[in-house]
Records
---
Amino acid sequence: AALHGRRAVAASQYHRRGTTIDWKRAAAWLEAVLESLCTQPLPHGEFWNVNLPDLDPLAPSPPIVECVVDPSPFDLAYDHSAEGWHYGGNYHERPRIADGDVATCFAGRIAVSRLRAL
């Protein structure tokens, strides 16, 4: 959409192993984010990237924080079994910068960043 001059948003839900995603709650958080983003200008070729945190079911709604995208690389690890290839890395242990989207999301806040598609 951003490549064609349309307002665009990419959203992801962080998920720790052993937890269950509450998609209804995630949708409510994303709705609040989209309401705030609709009023902000977005130059041609840019889009919003939204990362939702994985919080305890009883936690209050997280704050929305605009931050930079963290370019820190992380190790990819795949295991092969009779069922095929499976991601075996530990995403939560990836390197991160303090003011980036990864650290923001891992700290329990909604991370919102601008990216350029061009």
Note: The first strand starts at residue 9 and ends at 13.
---
Amino acid sequence: MDALSDVLRVLRLTGGVYLDARFTAPWCVLSQLEATDCRPYFTEPKHIIGYHYVVAGRLKLAVEGEAQVELEGGDLVLLPHNEAHRMGSALDIEAINGASLPYVESQGLTQIRYGGGGEATHIVCGFMGTEGGRHPLLEALPRVLKLKTEASAAGAWIKSSFTYAAREAAAGRAGTATVLSKLSELLFVEAVRGYLEELPDERKGWLAGMRDPVVSRALTQIHARLAHAWTVDEMASVAFLSRSAFAERFTELMGMPPMRYLALWRMQVAAQQLRDGHQSIARIALDVGYDSEAAFTRAFKREHGVAPGAWRRKVP
């Protein structure tokens, strides 16, 4: 399994489509997802990613402090940090709070019809969420992530998927929540892959390390053999570099030394396993590379502030 796939596995996204909206110009809406919007998929997600897919028409979208993004039919835009954003036919007009818009429920899918009667725009809105905490992938993503699906190899699939998702949600068929969750996860993966391919060469951070052929070789091996007693020398060996050259390249791209990354990732995986609640703390300690429960407990407490057992009891 490559490192990106392993990270996505641990992230464990769940999501769905919740809104079919048709606007007519002029219109401007202030939007931000609330945890309650994610029901029945979550009780209390720790991290929410909102997204909008433009079925037809066009719109502008912006978060505070960022340049506006122009979208048209076939474009997908993600808000990886679920920030409040304005969207509309124009952004220099008064925005109405999205929560106050008139809406109707149609067998489970909320529908909105709003605007001044001019040029029409049709969007489908959804979300993804995770019950985990901090995550290197989510922290590395920009505030707004746009994917032009028409230019993507998966463009036709994405378009047909949203059409299917909207129909499933509207029909309220048995198993719809599971279907929409998987579709949302696949859309997120496609957006991240598209962003990764367009990342500037000078960009630093976790995603830059994933794209680098040398660092990604080491990351893939680390993720595949997390319980192994890794040293920097061994990481450098699988990356086909000298120890010093590897450590310098890894730190420059990832923003932290190799062993620090290893420790953080072990805590991410351990937190996921503790959340699942199926394995003993001693078993989890071995799975993430600690030779004793005591050593694992000390490391976990340094990172999370509480011992593994106490952390597990706090998880809803």
Note: The first helix runs from residue 3 to 11.
---
Amino acid sequence: MQFTSNLTAWAGGFMVCLALVASIGAQNLFLLRQAVAGRHVSACVAWCVVSDVALTAIGVVGMAQVLAGWPGLAFWLTLGGAVFLLCYGLRAWARLLPGKGGAVHMAPQGLPATRSKVLAALAALTLLNPHVYLDTVLLAGSIGAREVGSLKLAFLAGGASASLIWFLSLAFAGRKLQAVFARPAAWRVLDAFTGASMLALAAWVGLLSRDM
């Protein structure tokens, strides 16, 4: 009986977190670029998984209720995230300008070089993105908070499994696309798509902050 309950909670965490993490966002696009370039991929995957699990755990233990009770905090988090996403999108589009990319060195120029800089950039993309809090802390966290006792741990284990599978798959896909991205034109297409996605996301997040 207990095993069945744990399995159900695990499956619930897996499905919920997989549905939330498997979307085109700043974190996923950054990891994809790193995987294509072959730079510090393992560290990026580790950060993505650990941060997802940690934020979901915060939501499970009650941060979802805290944020719901402090609309002012939610507003500033959302507004700050919109500004950050706007800057990130404009930076991606700036690499399309003449002299800013297009040569065979475009991939290294568009990415941080050292592991510490890579993780700092990824941490900023994760923690300054309001979607991360909406997905992990509020949505997944509030769902997991309904579980009782040890079932909360089973829910988190399911979420961790989903994050690990997704981010490893994304890194693997990036590796397989290295031949495609050996051409500068492919990086330009990815930058154009990244810029459009981030600007659209920034606009949507900005509208959310206006309604808070």
Note: Confidence is low (pLDDT under 50) at residues 101-109.
---
Amino acid sequence: KTGVAKEGEEPEEVAPVGPKRFLPQFTLEGLVVDDEGVYSRVQYRDEFMPEVSKAIQKFEDPNRRLLNQQEIEQAEFPVVSSDDAPGVWGVAVWSEVDPRLDYVSVFVRGITNAYTIEFDAEGNQTLRHKTLQLNYWRPGDVVEQTRDKIIYGIPFDSNVLSQIQICKHYQLPGPRFNVYITNKEIDGEAYIGGINGEVDSESFDSLAAPQLDKGEFPEPLSNYLAGYGFDVTAASGFKTLIPGEKWAFNLDFQGEPRVFEIRLEPEFWQKDGKGIRFLKRLEYLWVYR
């Protein structure tokens, strides 16, 4: 393919996109509840079980090849021209899964090489990879498990408290403090990053937003920005644009004064009266782990 060139210049040659490889990690994760109603989280890594993979293929579709764990790592994924292309299909297998497991997520790592870096109070870095989270639930019990349905998505409950508990089971991300900086080159703004909004599970209000309303930086946000070289102690002109939602301050960056904005923005749900309202589909989502 050929790149875009300015007037009077020769277009830059760009290497064509070729087939890709996929080195996945599949993790089955969820909660089991004991006889006293206490939940505990369990994890399972996929296993290489070729005979089981063959049996699954025979059951699902004998005419469609399902690659096992090793085969999918060796396969080349071709570039496709339409959504109707057959693609490459595979199967992940787990064994010895606790039969009490009801709220289940499958985390797929390796689809993208995107990552984010988090900083704690001591300035230590944690590298988190962008991961696809697929959500399922199983309405049933440990009896006659082969007859239980596995439903794609998460269950919905008319009881607000029960729904909040279900959201916690799936570790659904709440609102985040996202930081933006003015960018003169594009006459707009650039996204720097963000952290958890520290939202209370009963009031659905951010516990850190009142600090920002007072002109104070919450410690996690201050540490996060410091990790990227932004010293908020030198910030000036701090003001609240929308109480509890949006704030701005001035800070020099690369020798020039810039305007920064902090926004408390929802991802998958937001407060709605005494409950919450979902903003996106919850069958799958992208998270950093």
Note: The chain has five helices and 14 strands.
